[in-house]
From TrEMBL:
UniProt cross-references to InterPro entries, sorted A to Z: IGPD_sf (IPR038494), ImidazoleglycerolP_deHydtase (IPR000807), ImidazoleglycerP_deHydtase_CS (IPR020565), Ribosomal_Su5_D2-typ_SF (IPR020568)
Reaction catalyzed: D-erythro-1-(imidazol-4-yl)glycerol 3-phosphate = 3-(imidazol-4-yl)-2-oxopropyl phosphate + H2O
Record localization: Cytoplasm
Domain of life: Bacteria
CC annotations in GO: cytoplasm
Name under which the protein is recorded: Imidazoleglycerol-phosphate dehydratase
Pathway of action: Amino-acid biosynthesis; L-histidine biosynthesis; L-histidine from 5-phospho-alpha-D-ribose 1-diphosphate: step 6/9
Xref: HAMAP family: HisB
Gene that specifies this protein: hisB
Amino acid sequence: MRRAEVTRTTAETDITLTLDLDGTGASRIETGVGFFDHMLELLARHAMIDLDVTANGDTHVDFHHTVEDVGIALGQAVRRALGDMKGLTRYADVHMPMDETLTRVAIDVSGRPFLVWRTEFPAPKVGEFDTELVREFFQAFATHAAVTLHVETLYGANAHHIAESCFKGLARVLKTALALDPRAGDRLPSTKGRIGD
Ligand SMILES: [Mn+2]
């Protein structure tokens, strides 16, 4: 069972997150941040990960702590749910279109945290949501899932579309890279014999 639950309580946020990597994309997301809920719902759907998130954060300050801490919790949960990584596909990439926007996302479930971020937003906000928080989420996720993640928006004009292409792109690379390869059996996808440092 590739499932995990993470609870994380700080002075800034209180988060409970459960996921099932081998789900159907069902989700129940309540972060108190509408746009972020929208992004997490489509992440779960397109990754086919079952995901429940409840976050009570200091959104009276702004959405920064809530978004970053959910990224941390999601990364931790993915890493735990992966277990020993035997049989893992490991690599994936996608070009994700969203109307006029095209974003490329590539992942290596490497055990080595790294984010390359080449996405800029034409507007500082989508509704109430600061667009700079998209990068914060991806950085937190990549660090705590211990994955190498490259995100580059090749072109795009609409900030909502750009954000959505990043999250959908992440979803699709997770769906592929986190899948078990039946031909791999119980072997690690590494000639080194271990994943990580
Ligand atoms: Mn949308």
